[in-house]
Every structure is written in structure tokens, then in C-alpha cells.
Design a protein that fits this description.
single chain
Length: 301
């Protein structure tokens, strides 16, 4: 495969796992609210197969999506898995019958979560497991994660996990985890307007650790920016493509996992690698964070 395709390649530190920088996030394969089966199960299978056929070899998932739904669809669509496919999953939450998102962080819950992922994915060992720190809403929250990371490190020693990452973690939590085990990736909320992790991204880049942004266009509160719309129109692209392209330019350790349940939208996301943003355009897009901060301050006053 051409190194330039899908954003180029990235190798997780201290591993033999090399992925294309544009991957795929499976969360949207579940039903509304990330609960239950999708309306079109065959369509979900088709999206996964199309992604892999296009060269995607990094899939992000979790057994609490559905729950169990996305992992079961991944297994149906892709098992036996092609050589080189890296599946990254998450632990730290559970979905009770009321469809809420609750913490699942005891040693027993984390261990059970690993076995759930193994069973539903049909794997003997999980490539990468992110411990998802459950803060308030989608924001980070300080606090020790030593107990949870230690549990994952022990499961790694037992051969059930190959590598460990973090999700929704602060810089101090990343450092605490690194004092216990190797951390190969960090997955946090980050986009053109929400740039709280700029310093962390640069620090991780120096360590060759992957940074995987979720909500690249704002998530449940979509980013509203006339600048983004203007740039997209000028370059003949969608706002999502521009936002993803900006992330690829932001730092070489950034990996993308845009999700969709549509083959057409998938192809649109993967075409992001064909966009080139000039220094002038990048500078224009960089102003969006300042605009968003100003708007937030005005709304708070």
C-alpha cells in the first residue's frame, strides 16, 4: 500500500502495529443512542467491508456500544480478520437497561469487560485496550487511575491484552499510567474549536505516542463555524473533510477514527487524504478556536 494513502502510516510505540492514519470508528453501527441493533444490519456489515477493502486497518470499538452490538457486527463482517488489521477497544463503562452510561471500573468489571470483548470479537487477545476515564459528561476529570491501569497491566501479562491506551484522560493521568505500564495511545475530545489538548498532543508526539481525537466536528453539539463552511466551499469539500484534514495536518501522531453507518459517507471521509491545506488556509482554520473561545466567554457573561 502507498504510504501516502489514507493519511500515511503510523506505528504504535513499542509495538509492531502499523496503521493508516485514517481509520474507522464503529460506534455509529449500533442503533440510536448507541443502543441496540442498527436499522440496517446488512448495511453495517457493508460499511465495515468497504472500509477494509479501501485500506483501513484501524478500527475503534467497544463492547459497551450496543452493548455488544458493534463487536458482533465487526466479527460477522470481518472474521477471520485480515493480516494487519488492528482493532482497538475500550473498557470503563457499562450500559444498563435504562440505556445510561455508568462506570465499570472495579477489577472484576474490567476483567469481565476484557472477556466480553474477546468473546464478541472472536479474538484470543485484544490488540489495544483503552481505559476510558468516565468523567462528568464528555469532559475529563482528575483523579487516580492507578488501580484500573494496574488491572489492565496484569491482564496484559496474562496475554489477554497486547497493548494499553487511555481515553478521556488528563496529562497527569497519562503520566500516572506511564509509571505503571507502556501507553501506546490517548483518545480524547479534540477538534478545530476544542483545543484543550494542544500541549498534550505535542508532548505525546515527542514520545511517538498516538493521539486519537473523538468528536472531530463537535460530536453531539456540532461545530458551527462560518470560517469552516467558507473554507469547505472554496475547496469544494465538506466541512467534515476539512475538519479531518486539519487534524491530519495538526500533528503526525494524530490518528482519525471518523464513524458512519453509510458507505457513501465512509467514502467521503476516506477521501480526506486527497485534500491539501495551504499554510494560509491552516492559519485561517486555526482562528476558529479563538472564535469559539470568544463566543463561549460571551455566552457565559
Amino acid at each position: 500500500m502507498n504510504d501516502a494513502k489514507l493519511g500515511g502510516r503510523f506505528t504504535f510505540p513499542c509495538t509492531s502495529l502499523t496503521v493508516q492514519r485514517i481509520g474507522y470508528g464503529a460506534m455509529q453501527l449500533a442503533g440510536p443512542g448507541v443502543w441496540g441493533p442498527p436499522k440496517d444490519p446488512d448495511g453495517a456489515v457493508a460499511v465495515l467491508r468497504e472500509a477494509v477493502a479501501a485500506g483501513v486497518n484501524h478500527i475503534d470499538t467497544s463492547d459497551y456500544y450496543g452493548p455488544h452490538v458493534t463487536n458482533q457486527i465487526i466479527r460477522k463482517a470481518l472474521h477471520p480478520y485480515p493480516a494487519g488489521l488492528v482493532i482497538v477497544t475500550k473498557l470503563g463503562a457499562r450500559r444498563p437497561a435504562d440505556q445510561s452510561w455508568q462506570k465499570a471500573i472495579s477489577p472484576q468489571e474490567l476483567t469481565a469487560g476484557v472477556h466480553d470483548n474477546l468473546r464478541n470479537l472472536g479474538m484470543d487477545a485484544l490488540d489495544v485496550v483503552n481505559y476510558r476515564v468516565m468523567g462528568s459528561g464528555h469532559g475529563t476529570e482528575e483523579g487516580s487511575i492507578a488501580e484500573q491501569v494496574t488491572v489492565l497491566a496484569e491482564l496484559r501479562r496474562k496475554g489477554l491484552i497486547r497493548h494499553i491506551g487511555l481515553s478521556n484522560a488528563t496529562a497527569s493521568q497519562v503520566a500516572e499510567a506511564q509509571s505503571i505500564t507502556e501507553v501506546v495511545c490517548v483518545q480524547n475530545n479534540y477538534n478545530l474549536a476544542y483545543r484543550h489538548d494542544d500541549t498534550l498532543i505535542d508532548d505525546l508526539a515527542r514520545q511517538h505516542i498516538a493521539y486519537v481525537p473523538f468528536f472531530p466536528l463537535g460530536g453531539f453539539s456540532p461545530l458551527q463555524s462560518s470560517t469552516l463552511s467558507s473554507v469547505a466551499s472554496r475547496l469544494g469539500a465538506t466541512a467534515m473533510q476539512i475538519a479531518l484534514a486539519w487534524l491530519l495536518h495538526r500533528s503526525p501522531n494524530i490518528l482519525l477514527i471518523p464513524g458512519t453507518s453509510s458507505v457513501a459517507h465512509l467514502r467521503e471521509n476516506l477521501a480526506t487524504d486527497q485534500l491539501t491545506l495551504s499554510p494560509q488556509t491552516l492559519a485561517e482554520l486555526d482562528e476558529i478556536a479563538a472564535e469559539a473561545g470568544l463566543q463561549h466567554n460571551r455566552s457565559a457573561n
